[in-house]
Specification:
Helices cover 25% and strands 24% of the residues. With 491 residues, the chain is an alpha/beta fold. It has a six-stranded antiparallel beta sheet with strand order 1-2-10-7-12-5, with no helix packed on it. The chain has a six-stranded parallel beta sheet with strand order 15-14-16-17-18-23, sandwiched between helices.
Length: 491
């Protein structure tokens, strides 16, 4: 055992499997080590996996060998006394299925083992104590989701220091299947709330296109009202590694009236707070969709760190939801503006009005649209793409492989900043070539004759996209997306 070396984290050939060299301090009396030090290890690249249970496997004699088991949790493997030869096999579905990594582990080394990677070991000394931290509590139900592979399979090529014919194995470990017959570990499931909204539908389409529907569950408010604390007991949270919350109350003017205020706060603040608590308690990643309305629109460009300054009831409820979700350790707040997807939206309305204005028999000749609110359109399909990107899904991935750091990300279309009137002209020109039928007016003029309450709008909704761009995701230009969207309306 090497004393006084630096703490170091090293990647291996199995994605997510990390070797940790531990500083051990010793003298004639013995030694001391920090076996798990969250702050230092996370800073060096170890996932912040927040263990909830510590287990010890005592191995009385040299040669005791434990089979290759993959379990539905992350593990931090180390040794308290003695030494082991460890072997890890990737049993997750995908291109690295069957990949093998081996090394010796003593008190001066640990190995972070991600969910779905099988691990086995052979005690190299009498009295070896093999210890491991896990981030889920053991249960009989979860035990039924384990998967195994034979530690003697020649296809794995594991060079055991002590021949298996001389080792001590259980009958169960002797009977595990060869790699060719082993079942891949089922991915953690993803729960999508608000599945019937514009974003929820886009997430479903993308998941279907990526072959992910088998691990995604979709629900709407009639199946799971996430603003109702009594309904959380109906969800089997042990199934889920991620929740994507697409549900929201978006009737911004109705929220200013007494009958809409409570519903708005329930969906946009209370619900996200309850989801955040449920996810935090179970180590689940929570994706929550935010809005440009959390800002007052006075800045030319809104970064993620700008102080919240909502003007309306809707904006205040969204800001409250953002703050609640930020308390969940594994969270992404995805901030959008001017969302366009399936169903009723501004672009569809303008396309329909363009056709009416092109009809000489219709008395409607011009349409007034505000020109003093500036921003960019956000197409729901791009939001869905960006959310899966942040979660770590890359093309062909059946489960996340390289997620972005947790936190808040702006996600809108890229391109020029425009007014609602500018967008309307583009829609009119593309639909019937009659962009001149759009008459720009101020927000004050537009709502001067409104019969009910009107929510104040942010004047500028231009969100800075540099942070999400740094993760490698580049949102498409909203004008290119608009052209394709309008072509789809004509089909």
């Amino acid at each position: 055992m090497e004393f006084e070396r630096d703490l170091r984290v090293t990647e291996t050939n199995i994605p997510g499997l990390l070797v940790v060299d531990l500083p051990v301090h010793g003298d004639a009396r013995g030694w001391f080590k920090e076996n798990w030090q969250r702050e230092k290890m996370v800073a060096l690249g170890l996932p912040d996996f927040r263990p909830v249970q510590n287990n010890i496997s005592f191995n009385a004699s040299r040669g005791v060998t434990r089979g290759v088991h993959a379990e539905p949790w992350n593990k931090f493997v180390s040794v308290a006394t003695g030494r082991i030869f460890g072997a890890w096999v990737d049993l997750r579905p995908g291109g690295t299925f069957g990949e093998v990594y081996t090394c010796e582990v003593g008190p001066d080394r640990a190995v972070f083992t991600p969910r779905g990677v099988g691990n086995s070991f052979q005690a190299l000394e009498d009295g070896t104590a093999y210890t491991y931290l896990v981030d889920a509590h053991w249960s009989a139900e979860l035990k039924g989701t384990y998967t195994f592979v034979s530690l003697a399979d020649p296809a794995l090529g594991i060079d055991w220091p002590i021949p298996l014919s001389e080792a001590t194995l259980s009958e169960a470990d002797r009977g595990h299947p060869m790699l060719a017959d082993a079942l891949p570990m089922a991915p953690e499931r993803t729960l999508v709330t608000g599945c019937n909204g514009q974003l929820g539908r886009a997430v479903r389409r993308l998941a279907e296109g990526r072959g992910l529907l088998g691990s995604f569950d979709f629900c709407d408010i009639d199946e799971f009202d996430f603003s109702d604390p009594a309904q959380y007991g109906r969800v089997d949270w042990s199934l889920y590694g991620t929740v994507i919350n697409c549900g929201a109350y978006t009737a911004v003017d109705r929220a200013e009236a007494p009958e809409g205020r409570a519903a708005c706060w329930g969906a946009n603040a209370t619900g996200p707070a309850l989801l955040a608590r449920a996810c935090a308690e179970r180590g689940v990643t929570l994706v929550h969709v935010s809005s440009d309305y959390v800002f007052d629109g006075s800045a030319d460009n809104h970064g993620e760190g700008e102080p919240l300054s909502p003007l309306s009831v809707y904006g205040q409820s969204k800001a409250a939801g953002d703050l609640a979700v930020a308390g969940c350790p594994r969270h992404y707040v995805v901030r959008s503006s001017w969302v366009i997807g399936e169903g009723r939206n501004f672009v569809r309305t303008m396309a329909a009005l363009s056709r009416r204005c092109a009809d000489p028999s219709d008395p409607l000749g011009r349409v007034t649209v505000v020109d003093d609110q500036l921003g960019r359109l956000t197409f729901a399909d791009q939001m869905a793409e960006g959310i899966l990107w942040l979660l770590g899904y890359r093309d062909g991935d059946l489960e996340p492989s390289s997620p972005a750091p947790y936190g808040t990300y702006n996600l809108t279309g890229s391109g020029r900043v425009a007014s609602w009137a500018d967008v309307a002209r583009e829609v009119f020109d593309a639909t019937c070539g009659n962009g001149e039928a759009v008459a720009p007016v101020s927000t004050e003029e537009y709502y001067a004759s409104a019969s009910g309450p009107v929510a104040p709008r942010p004047a500028r909704s231009d969100l800075d996209l540099s942070k999400i761009g740094a993760t490698g995701f580049s949102p498409r230009d909203w004008e290119d997306e608009l052209s394709e969207y309008l072509e789809g309306l004509d089909e």
